[in-house]
Amino acid sequence: MSAVIVIQLVAGFVLLIAGAEGLVRGASRIALALGIPPLIIGLTVVALGTSSPELAVSIGASVTGRPDITVGNVIGSNILNVLFILGVSAALIPLVVQRQLVRLDVPIMIAASVAAWLFALDGQVNRLEGGLLFAGLLAYVGFLFNQLRQERGTEVEAQYEEKYRRAVDMSARTWVANVGLVVGGLAVLALGSHWLVAGATAIAELLGVSQLIIGLTIVAVGTSLPEVATSILASIRGERDIAVGNAVGSNIFNLLAVLGLSALVAPVPLRVNTAAIHFDLPVMVAVALACLPIFFTGSLIARWEGFLFLGYYAAYTVYLILYAQQHDALPLFSDVMLLFVIPLTVLTLVVITWRAFGRQRTASRASS
Asked: From residue 319, how far is each of 63, 213, 329 by CA, in Å?
């Protein structure tokens, strides 16, 4: 493999992370100076910043006629966000799940996952379907803003004010500097996404694997690095709700904004690979559905559940490797997963959920 291709790929990753950091810092300070509440900044600007690598790469790939990288990046990032990020975070420390996540955000993530799969069943996601996904994002953000007006999160606001308090009163020089951060961050994101897509495409051609596999693995992992760092660091610091919310929120943004905008700007309908329709998209939906019973059980993601997620991500990665190589062990591995491991896990989750509901009913009867 050419050293130039590897350097281009690594440089693309680095530029994506640096561009996202510059965009978040500049936009957050400007928003505070304009009087926008810090909590809204956290739910919009900061959330956009952590997902901006996926957005930049997917839009760049769709415009240049590489739909497999676009679709693979979205699917791979969503699977990684739940199975790997939440898995590692919960393995480090059990994660607390807020009630809003169970009642609102996780159902929206599931609905968006199912919608994306249904849109792709005909082998493409057209502009109308992309517009519907993006409209869903606008409705979701609008609902959050309305909810914030009714119920202000003073503790979270204090955290953001502490982080960005120096930017509230800005001089002309500071304004220029922060606008420069935003513009520079966007430019670096664009360059990084171009290098990353070009490098990933070249690697796919050299290795003889599909661009979909590269999008599901190398590109998805690389563009998800901000979410990985944010969630793991938050769990280590004890900010467990941030770790969970970041992963779920990123999945919603990936489906509604990244996939939606990519389909809107693509010169032709966004083509979806048959392998993604029959396997990867159903896995993404199943992973989203798996969150509900786990999140229901005492509003806590236990360590063993974190290790279960990690085990499934390892199995999914092994499957992709075997599929890319068309290895002789692929049929046996698939049969073991479909006939034994997955049914056993589903049965375990059903039993756990049933017991959790039983304990809640017993507790409610005792309190009444």
From this structure: 29, 11, 10
